[in-house]
Automatic annotation (TrEMBL):
Key words, A-Z: DNA-binding, Hydrolase, Transcription, Transcription regulation
Domain HTH cro/C1-type: 7-61
This protein's record includes keyword Magnesium: no
Annotated Gene3D superfamilies: lambda repressor-like DNA-binding domains, Umud Fragment, subunit A
InterPro entries in the record: Cro/C1-type_HTH (IPR001387), Lambda_DNA-bd_dom_sf (IPR010982), LexA-like (IPR039418), LexA/Signal_pep-like_sf (IPR036286), Peptidase_S24_S26A/B/C (IPR015927)
Main EC class the enzyme belongs to: hydrolase
Matching Pfam families: HTH_3, Peptidase_S24
Keyword Cytoplasm found: no
Lineage, highest ranks first: unclassified sequences, metagenomes, ecological metagenomes
Name of the protein: LexA repressor
EC id: 3.4.21.88
Length: 203
């Protein structure tokens, strides 16, 4: 993700306009628009101000890594919530919608990320709009609920079941057909991105 895209994503996560952010940082009204469209490059001082305001690293502002933020007041970690996932590896071009707090106990299980559920395929267990907290992995055990990427589509959430012919990716909503994958073409048919360990509902 380029700097301009990262800045835009962070700004939107706080529901700020370009003018709002410029005012907060005491910058010219048009500066944020120029940064987001890469018509201007911020100085190191401004880059550090942006990173401090959004509570992320300068490296993250430059688009080089997914940011995990330590909350000093609560001792928890904040992980990015991705609106859509359309490519691999994790973080390459994913739009961050916000952040979710996780405990150190959860983070100790592995590198975590979160994804907003965009369909009703896993209802009534996981509802559209819920946030799935997942641990990055590329393999699943029988019965795991996983986030997976299918070529040509955004990532989806399904229950993984091992079958004699390969695997079945099951929806809990009967309106959605299972996705059947043979063992010989499983690598081309889908890629597991993470195992869901927690689901958070919108109240």
């Amino acid at each position: 993700m380029l700097f301009g895209e990262r800045l835009k994503s962070l700004r939107k996560s706080k529901n700020l306009t370009q003018v709002d952010l410029a005012s907060i940082l005491e910058l010219d009204k048009s500066s944020i628009a120029k940064y987001e469209t890469l018509k201007a490059i911020p100085s190191l001082d401004i880059l550090m101000k942006l990173a401090k305001y959004f509570n992320v690293s300068v490296d993250y502002m430059l688009g080089n890594e997914a940011s995990v933020i330590l909350s000093e007041s609560t001792g928890t970690l904040k992980i990015p919530v991705y609106k859509t996932i359309s490519s691999y590896p994790v973080e390459s071009n994913w739009e961050i919608e916000g952040y979710e707090e996780i405990t150190p106990q959860i983070s100790e299980q592995g590198k975590c990320f979160a994804m907003r559920i965009n369909d009703s395929s896993m209802e009534p267990r996981i509802w559209k709009g819920d946030t799935a907290i997942a641990i990055e992995c590329n393999k699943a055990r029988n019965g795991d609920v996983v986030i997976l990427l299918i070529p040509g589509r955004s990532a989806i959430c399904r229950k993984y079941t091992s079958q004699s012919f390969g695997a079945a990716l099951i929806s809990l909503n009967p309106a959605f057909e299972p996705i059947l994958v043979s063992e010989t073409n499983s690598d081309e048919a889908f890629k597991i991105l993470g195992r869901v360990i927690e689901v958070r509902a919108i109240l």
